[in-house]
Amino acid sequence: MSRQIEKVKKYSNGSLPVSVQPCAVSEKSLELIKLAAWNAKAVYAADTTHMDRIAQLADFSGYKLTPHSESIDASLRDGTVKATSLRLLSPEKDSLPMLLVVAIRGSTSKRRDWTINFDDIGQGTDGAGFLDSNDCTYQVHGGYLECAKGMVEKVSEAISCILSNSEADHSVDRDIQLLFTGHSAGGAVASLLYAHMISSYTSTLANLHPRFTSIDCIVFGSPPVSKPGLTSYSQTSTFLSIINEGDPVPRMDKGFIESLLTIYISPMPAASVAWALPPMLLDNAGTIMVLKDGEQGLCTVPDDIDQKGIRAVLETTVFGNPRAHKMDMYLWKLGLVKTLF
To answer: Where are the bilayer-spanning segments (predicted)?
Structure first.
């Protein structure tokens, strides 16, 4: 693996270009990003010792856990339902809303998870009937679309249960903000559920839209989901795709996998030349922001119109470090852990 990473770095497009620069992020937005990252890690709850080494909510936010939570188990047969954790957070300040976080787990080592990941990889399935078209036909990754459709009822039931229980004991006496999050494939499904909930379609999940003052989505290391890319439904809604430099999953489709395998079997380049990459078949969801090596904070292409600049960077840069995909790496770059695991 170290040899492969070294080889990728030898190519002139093996690292992010200088055009990707740090950008200003408000304290409020950064807090929401960190809350999303914390929950995206916590849903991988099999190894609870890792959570002991991660910053506590009080260390980086003005929120605390409430007794109200729900969980959804992954489907045992085909992986069409991903393990999901829902937590209601309470703010320390009266001026802030409650925060209900829906965190969807990414892929584990289980075969059923990867069956979904490689189902219809890089190809498009018509998203009609699930995503609002707005005179636009969405082509969606078939595996993630199937998964999102299978989770609508379960997620809406879990949300309704938390709302009902918190209202019964008078825990909720203020507005509630809803946040979808997830890492890897969990982020892809979270993006689709977010997009469905804000669409004009009627479903048990979409019908819950009026219960929340704001609906947001922040995902980490999420693979391409649709063509065109999914966007926020309003200027006040946060919809972000956070990508760590080198993480191959946000670029993952059949052509890119084959290209990485070709690099793997090729000799070390003698000179700094560019490695030719295939075009992206699907786009990443939301506004793309990058955690760049050697830079503090989040980065993007300045003055980028319609994200054409950052998408061009994704399409022409070799993201070839599988270690960069670990959620622990995202937490470390966001300052939520002092040392890597």
So the answer is: none
